[in-house]
């Protein structure tokens, strides 16, 4: 169902019979809400988010394409999150169990304007699925539609902002002992300790070659947010903490206490597509109403 969201921007609302829901703005194909059966919001959306293109919306799941962060010549995180997407008029085939799922298919095609800043033709199809248990799945299909024989290379992230009760009581499981690039230390390479990750200051790390499953444990809620990913080997973990939070106009000074970004990403090894080739990158978010054992 398409409704008017903030500032009259169109958004799609996906609802399941069990009361779970999700919302995605056509602007940026930006998921801004994912609620459980009790109607609790599981994603963080800043109370100061600015819904005014071309400013990206602060929170939810920004799409970082064709560039993650400043790893290239484009603006921070590329331009997919600053574009108006449309409904896909020729969506990929539906999955066999489609009748239990609520699906919306969006598409972004390179425009003449885009070609001036990134000279490659692409079609980016994004399928957003709300499963029968409230699982939220994002499947990206990016194809090189160029006819000039030129391959292109891109980096990518689903820049997911999770809502947490209290960042100082959050644990992340699945990234122990991995190498990571530390954005707070000139992106130098380090190795993570052997037990789960906890937070007491700014964290901005690109974990490399991570497992397909990462768990974010919210101690107060006795709830685990589970991320499963495919085609996205890396995982970015970010919390701006107090100083950086204050420096962002679209982020409340204290909001860092109630959010954590865990981002399924392809950064260390950017993806190259020859004309006609297609890449798929998927993440599925789900919740478990208990703290998973380490
Ligand atoms: O994903 C982490 C990060 O790259 C941080 O370095 C910080 O810049 C964050 O993204 C937010 O970026 P944005 O452009 O959305 O303000």
Automatic annotation (TrEMBL):
Its EC number(s): 5.1.3.15
GO biological process: carbohydrate metabolic process
Domain of life from the UniProt record: Eukaryota
Segments crossing the lipid bilayer: none
Active site: 159, 263
Catalytic activity, as annotated: alpha-D-glucose 6-phosphate = beta-D-glucose 6-phosphate
Family matches, as PANTHER family: APOSPORY-ASSOCIATED PROTEIN C-RELATED, GLUCOSE-6-PHOSPHATE 1-EPIMERASE
Name the UniProt record assigns to this protein: glucose-6-phosphate 1-epimerase
Native species: Artemisia annua (Sweet wormwood)
């Amino acid at each position: 169902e398409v409704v008017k969201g903030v500032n009259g921007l169109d958004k799609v609302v996906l609802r399941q019979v069990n009361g779970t829901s999700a919302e995605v703005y056509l602007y940026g194909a930006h998921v801004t809400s994912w609620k459980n059966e009790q109607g609790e919001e599981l994603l963080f959306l800043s109370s100061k988010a600015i819904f005014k293109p071309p400013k990206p919306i602060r929170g939810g799941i920004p799409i970082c394409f064709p560039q993650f962060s400043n790893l290239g010549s484009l603006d921070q995180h590329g331009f997919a999150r600053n574009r108006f997407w449309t409904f896909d008029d020729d969506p990929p085939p539906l999955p066999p169990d489609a009748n239990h799922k609520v699906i919306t298919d969006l598409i972004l095609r390179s425009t003449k304007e885009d070609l001036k800043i990134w000279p490659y033709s692409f079609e980016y199809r994004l399928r957003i699925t709300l499963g029968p248990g409230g699982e939220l799945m994002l499947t990206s299909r990016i194809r090189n539609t160029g006819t000039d024989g030129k391959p292109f290379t891109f980096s990518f992230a689903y820049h997911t902002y999770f809502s947490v009760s209290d960042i100082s009581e959050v644990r992340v499981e699945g990234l122990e002992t991995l190498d990571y690039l530390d954005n707070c230390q000139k992106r130098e390479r380090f190795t993570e300790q052997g037990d789960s990750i906890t937070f007491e200051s700014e964290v901005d790390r690109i974990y490399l070659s991570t497992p397909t499953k990462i768990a974010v444990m919210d101690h107060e809620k006795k709830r685990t947010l589970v991320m499963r990913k495919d085609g996205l080997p890396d995982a970015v973990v970010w919390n701006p903490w107090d100083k950086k939070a204050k420096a962002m106009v679209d982020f409340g000074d204290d909001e860092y206490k109630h959010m954590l970004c865990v981002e399924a990403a392809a950064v260390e090894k950017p993806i190259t597509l020859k004309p006609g080739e297609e890449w798929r990158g998927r993440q599925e978010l789900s919740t478990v109403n208990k703290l998973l054992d380490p």
